[in-house]
């Protein structure tokens, strides 16, 4: 099958390679000419036979919208656009409607697998009409891991990105739990080999997971993570998960707390704790520490 692929970064580039290994023809475009197969999107579309499929792997928001706008003018009725980036699910219906005016199909694909996907495959959560999704099944089969799992047609347009968003929210909470356990183990004097404690959990325990394996990898590289700063960004999907929970009145205490923990990691000196220290001093005469010079 032929496929145009826009965005050849760490994931997009590996996806191109995995698809080619499976025998598919992939024409890739990236703003970096060293990575790109063509000079622009017009040339990419010209190289594809109708009905065309173009897979978009660029950052969510303005970047994705810009590509959708350009493809709308380049593609024809019967073609299909797949958004495989981390777009907000609420943008999918808008993009589907914009492309639908020209009878161009739209599929949203939540993709998980990171830098390991080339060899291990990508978990795919797909949203869209059965007609559009079924036509792309050879592509999904090539990208997914071997075996019966790793792919789902989750529902109508938006369902793929919504499912991936919830996946990432769960990921936030799982990482936070491992991080809290690691910090507590590091804190006590009786445990003197925290890395090997984590390693011992990799087999036979109910908390074994790929994230745990990655934690052990990280500790093998830096036993006490001394080389790292305690600062963590968030991609946006954690926030969207919490917002969706509020909109649907679904309690997500663990995921919400893990998101707020990332916010706290960016504060060198917590403004909230200043107020708490001041209040404890006011009502109880508790000692306070002076601000650092």
UniProtKB/TrEMBL annotation:
Keyword Amino-acid biosynthesis recorded: no
Gene3D superfamilies reported for this sequence: N-(1-d-carboxylethyl)-l-norvaline Dehydrogenase, domain 2, NAD(P)-binding Rossmann-like Domain
GO biological process: D-gluconate metabolic process; pentose-phosphate shunt
Pfam families: 6PGD, NAD_binding_2
UniProt domain 6-phosphogluconate dehydrogenase C-terminal: residue ranges: 160-287
UniProt keywords, alphabetically: Gluconate utilization, Oxidoreductase
InterPro entries: 6-PGluconate_DH-like_C_sf, 6DGDH_YqeC, 6PGD_dom2, 6PGDH_C, 6PGDH_NADP-bd, 6PGdom_BS, NAD(P)-bd_dom_sf, Pgluconate_DH
GO molecular function, one term: phosphogluconate dehydrogenase (decarboxylating) activity
Oxidoreductase recorded as keyword: yes
Family designation: Belongs to the 6-phosphogluconate dehydrogenase family.
Protein's UniProt name: 6-phosphogluconate dehydrogenase
């Amino acid at each position: 099958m032929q496929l145009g692929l826009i965005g050849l970064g760490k994931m997009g580039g590996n996806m191109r390679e995995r698809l080619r290994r499976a025998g598919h023809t992939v024409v890739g475009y990236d703003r970096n000419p060293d990575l790109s197969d063509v000079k622009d999107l017009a040339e990419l579309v010209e190289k594809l036979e109708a009905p065309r499929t173009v897979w978009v792997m660029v950052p969510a928001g303005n970047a994705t919208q810009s590509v959708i706008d350009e493809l709308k003018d380049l593609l024809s009725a019967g073609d299909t656009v797949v958004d495989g980036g981390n777009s907000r699910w609420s943008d999918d219906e808008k993009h589907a409607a914009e492309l639908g005016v020209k009878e161009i199909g739209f599929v949203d694909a939540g993709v998980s697998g990171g830098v390991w996907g080339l060899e291990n495959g990508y978990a795919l959560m797909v949203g869209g009409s059965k007609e559009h999704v079924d036509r792309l099944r050879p592509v999904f089969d090539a990208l997914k891991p071997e075996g019966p799992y790793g792919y789902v047609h989750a529902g109508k347009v938006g369902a793929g990105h919504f499912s991936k968003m919830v996946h990432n929210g769960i990921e936030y909470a799982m990482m936070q739990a491992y991080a809290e356990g690691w910090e507590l183990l590091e804190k006590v004097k009786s445990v003197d080999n925290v890395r090997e404690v984590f390693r011992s959990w990799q087999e036979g325990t109910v908390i074994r997971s790929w994230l745990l394996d990655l934690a052990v990898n990280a500790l093998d590289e830096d036993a006490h993570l001394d080389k790292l700063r305690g600062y963590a960004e968030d991609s946006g999907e954690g926030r969207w998960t919490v917002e969706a929970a509020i909109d649907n009145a679904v309690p997500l205490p663990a995921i919400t707390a893990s998101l707020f923990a990332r916010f706290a990691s960016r504060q060198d000196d917590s403004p909230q704790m200043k107020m708490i220290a001041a209040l404890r001093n006011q009502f109880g005469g508790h000692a306070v520490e002076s601000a650092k010079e």
